[in-house]
Design a protein that fits this description.
239 residues, five-stranded parallel β-sheet, 8 helices, alpha/beta, three-stranded antiparallel β-sheet, 19% strand
């Protein structure tokens, strides 16, 4: 693990750099699934899927924020009714405020939209499988914590986390929720994941769908019953 930015060219290159850590999972499509957090985690996981021969699916999660400060997460929501709030004395107040003003409900609606659009697999299709959760980096850990808690409820055979870069303190907290955590860089006080990439553009829904379509053969190796993109609504450009 490194303390200095490796400056990957893009998310695809970062995904390729994570492959060696999961060499023992290569070709294990019968019992292993890569789960990417959309949007940024999808190109990282797609690169891994191409080298490891594993099925790729998405697992959507949404941060909850005050519209006046949209970049500052006060909570996050994931499948299975999982909601987490930023730690501290104000957690209860943040939860009450977000509920009262409709911020939580709005993100629950957006979560359902993304689940349908990207074809998140039904939870029962993941039960008993080895799950590798992938994102492009973790700074505060709010959304990842919600995702991991929701996946742990599905009783997977194992739950691993793979990210190119993560805040050191956040990694310590998240490591308690997984069976294994692989990070190429542990960083003290990580402020912005994008600084670790030469190209870190905001992805649109269409780009995510295109990447998922390219890896469709691998995604189809998930047991029958997984949601497909054919019934998904037309994408829009909401972030």
């Amino acid at each position: 693990m490194a303390d200095r930015p490796p400056l990957w060219t893009n998310r695809h290159q970062a995904g390729l750099a994570l492959v060696d850590a999961f060499a023992d999972r290569r070709g294990r499509a019968r019992d292993t699934t890569l789960l990417a957090l959309p949007r940024g985690g999808v190109p990282v996981a797609a690169a891994m899927a191409s080298r490891l021969g594993l099925p790729l699916a998405t697992w959507s999660v949404r941060k909850v924020a005050d519209p006046a400060w949209p970049e500052l997460a006060i909570g996050a929501v994931a499948a299975g009714g999982v909601v987490v709030w930023r730690n501290g004395e104000g957690a209860h107040l943040r939860a009450t405020t977000a509920t009262m003003h409709g911020w939580l409900r709005a993100q629950e609606r957006e979560l359902r939209r993304r689940q349908q659009l990207f074809g998140d697999p039904p939870g029962e299709q993941l039960r008993g499988r080895h799950l590798i959760v992938v994102d492009d980096g973790i700074a505060t850990g709010m959304t990842m914590k919600a995702a991991l808690l929701s996946l742990r409820k599905l009783e997977p055979a194992s739950l691993d986390l793979a990210v190119p870069v993560v805040d050191r303190g956040v990694a310590t907290e998240l490591s308690q929720l997984v069976d294994g955590l692989v990070a190429l860089a542990l960083v003290d006080d990580l402020q912005a994941v994008g600084l670790w990439y030469e190209h870190f553009e905001q992805l649109q829904d269409e780009q995510v769908l295109a990447l998922l379509k390219q890896t469709a053969p691998a995604r189809n190796q998930i047991p029958p019953g997984t949601s497909t993109l054919s019934s998904a609504p037309c994408p829009d450009n909401r972030s």
